[in-house]
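Please check this one:

***
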Amino acid sequence: MATHHGSSPSLSSQEIRSVALYARVSTLNSQNPDLQLRELQEYAARRGWSTHSTYLDLGISGAKESRPELNRMMLDAHRHEFDAILVWKLDRLGRSLKHLVVTLEDLQAYGIAFISLRDNLDLSTPSGRLMFHIIGSMAEFERALIRERVSAGIHAARARGKRIGRPRVYVSADKVHRLRAEGVPWREVGRRLGVGTGTAIRALQQAL
């Protein structure tokens, strides 16, 4: 196990001794993780690193919110059970650019180095950290574009007279008043009228 004292060590001065290997394939029928693992193991051996653990997510799409082995690896990274994570390509790790950046930021906070073999990305080196900042800028640019598209879509819809947001629900204040007069609890009033409790309360308050 990699030693860890106090705060996480800086990546620039970190000595890598043990690594975790992570591989993922989307479909078991047409894909096999052996190619990824073989290249990762050969690279680690050339660098003189021992393999602490191997994490495999098999038959799991990159778009999946939860990947059991990735989650387990990140937990072990938090515990600093190894010095670095080695993956075949970036798209094996991140399900999106935003998710990739957040994951790499977490690893940086844990003091865990990250190497993507085929992308020639090593966050323990100055050039790798520069590339990480570029990736982060790309993720922010992507988020800004999405916000602009959403905003433009809303303005265009409003210009066409389309109402944005959830449609208003009409509730008869008389029905609410009658049910309350019968001693029906607010929760039951909402259930009978097919609305939330807060909507039923507001309907009665506005009618008073």
